[in-house]
Structure formats: structure tokens, C-alpha cells
Amino acid sequence: MRADRLLSILLLLQTRARVPAAELARRLEVSVRTVYRDVEALSTAGVPVYAERGRRGGIALLPGYRTDVSGLTADEARALFVLTAQGTHAALGLDGALGTALRKVMAALPAPHRPAAELTSRRVLVDPDRWLGGPRPEVDVAALLEAVLADRRLRLRYRPSGSPAPRRFTVDPYGLVVKAGIWYLVADHRAAPRLFRADRMAAVSTAVEPVRRRPGVELAEVWEELRRRVEERPTPLTVRTRVHRSRLDLFLRISGSSVAALPEGDGRAEGPEWVPVELRYQELGAVHQLLQFGTRVVVDAPPEARRLLARTAAEIAAGYDGDEPERADGERADGERADGEPSDGERAHGERAGAVSPAAGSTVPGPR
Which Pfam family, any one, appears in the UniProt record (predicted)? Predict the structure, then answer.
């Protein structure tokens, strides 16, 4: 551990002209006294390091003591600092190692490239998670990675999609892939490539037998084959819809994977109030997702999709038909009191808007 700490101090000092002892202690999670002992050890080993006291003091190296990496261009230096989201490394237990590695690279960069590389790391952030992804089950990806790196077969208790209970699989792993924040195990099952979602694994254990991968086949090749199968599988149901322009952006974000083709001009420029969008689904029941857009999405075809949505909407309406449930304070969910009087909130809203009761002869404007 001390050897790693001494190397970290040396690399930090190469990156900056002078570093306060308190900052070194905070970064390395040790005491200031330990930092001074480590600096003394570096000096004894022949490293030209010294401590400068005072408000502007700190630990520093003699000018010119640098380790250079030749051959790196400015763009290559920037590329090293645009890696991936911190969350990916944290899931693998490598977030600490990432910080250390970047410090080492920064110290080894040619001096003219350091400012651009450091600025890039502060100005570019990659977040692999999708918007509105929702909570996900906890997955011990670090343990799964250790099992994969053991180069032995894996025994899984795994719940396939649509299955109520886990099943047992013995697989030959190629590696792990994270896509849109979801981790997958890529493996052969009975010599055929398969994808296993990490959050559906009930248990993982390492077998004694060595892994039996197909000769000459690598992870990237198997992943490309599996990804293509998922994206190119036939979609037997085509649904033609009209989307109100006010909801088009949201509709395309939520239904993006089902959109067969974007409307002309991406459908987002000024144009008709209703925009035609064609969708592709694996099964008829998937059209239920369109109900979340209410009257802002209209299904034109096929007829069976229209009938299904009409039947479902009628069932939903029937579930809300009848008297409103009464709350403990005597006010119903629609804002009217059980005794027929308007609620305090309704009365206040009417007073602010200058509203007059329709019973008093006023006219209520309809929707524009």
C-alpha cells in the first residue's frame, strides 16, 4: 500500500507545481504526518522533492523533473479523458482505480497537452442510463466479472423473460456488456450464443470445468450477432397513428424503439397539427402503451388495435364510474363536498378567477 501511495504522490507532484500537504493527505486518505514521512522516503530514494512552509507552501518537485510520454497528439490526450460514466466503473468496483489511472496518465502526458486533457475531463460527461429508466434491482456486477475472468463455466439460476420462476443454465461466458445502463452476460448455452440480463440472475456460481468457447470467437463478435438478432427480428404488427404535434417529441422519446420511421423532416418543424407516425410491435397487446398519451394519439389502423384500445378504455372508464370516493375531511376527489357545497379550494379558485356559477346564468367557455 505504501508503494502505491508513494507513486501517487510522485504523480500528483508531476501534474502540479506545488500541492499542499493537507490536500495530499485528503486525496490519499492519510494523515498529514504520514504525507511528510512519505515525502522524506521519496527524498531518501533520490527523488528531488522538498517541502516549503508558509501560507503558500506545500510539497513540490525540483523544476524539470518530469516523466514524458512521446508520440501522443493533443487529440489522443483528450480522448484518454473521455472514457465512460463513473457509474460503469463503480459497478465493476473500479471507480478508485479509474481515478488513479487518470492521474498517472495526466502526469505522463507532455506538458503542452495537460491543460486540454484536464479541461476535456471537466467539460464532457457520459451518462449511459436512459431518461425515465426507473429503479432497477441491485446487481453485484463486480462479483459477476470475477466469475467471468476465472475462465470457467458458470452455473446460473436465471429467470428468462416471461417466466415466473428461475431456471438453471450452464453457460460458457465470453464477457459482460453494458447497454443503456443494463448489464448483460454474453455466453454460449449448448454451443449457441445467448444474452442473460444480470438483474434476472438469482444466483451465479463457478463450475470446476474450464470454459468451452468456440475457437477464434471473441466477445465483440458474439455481441454484434446477438444485438443484430434483437434489432432485426420480425415485427408482425404495423400500427398507423396520428400524434398531436404538442406531444410529438415526448412520443418519439418514449416509443422510439417501436417507431418504424421518423416523420418527414423529423416531424418536429412547423406543419400540420397532427403528424402521422407508423409503429411496429411484436404483439397486439403492446398498443396499450399508447393509452398514456390520452387523446393526443389516435390509432387509425389496424382495426383490431382500435377495437382493443376502445375496449380497454371502456373498462378503465367503468372502473371510475359511479360516486367519487369520499375523503376523511368530507371532500370528494373531484373537489366537491359531500353536502353539495363547493370545497374551500374550489371556492378560492373561483374567486381568484372571477368565476360565476353557471347556475347564476354565466357562460362557461369550452376548450379552444
Answer: WYL
How far apart, in Å, do the first and last CA atoms of the chain sit? 71
At 143, give phi and psi (nearest 5°): -65, -40
Instruction: Say which CATH class 237-319 falls into.
Output: alpha beta
CATH 1.10.10.10 is the classification of domain 2-61: yes
Confidence label for 69 from pLDDT (cuts 50, 70 and 90): very low
Distance of CA 67 to the CA centre of its chain: 37
Would the pLDDT of 209 be above 70?
Answer: yes
Query: Quick one: DSSP state of residue 112?
Result: G
Q: At residue 66, what is the residue type?
A: R
Tell me the average pLDDT across 199-207. Answer: 91
The residues facing 52 across adjacent strands are: 58
Give the start-to-end residue ranges of the domains of the chain: 2-61, 74-123, 141-232, 237-319
Tell me how far apart the alpha carbons of residues 4 and 29 are, in angstroms, rounded to a whole number: 13
How would residue 72 be classed by pLDDT, with cut points 50, 70 and 90? low
Range with the lowest mean pLDDT among 4-8, 30-34, 279-283? 4-8
Q: Is 191 helix (H, G, I), strand (E, B) or coil?
A: coil
Radius of gyration for the chain, computed over Cα atoms and rounded to the nearest angstrom: 31
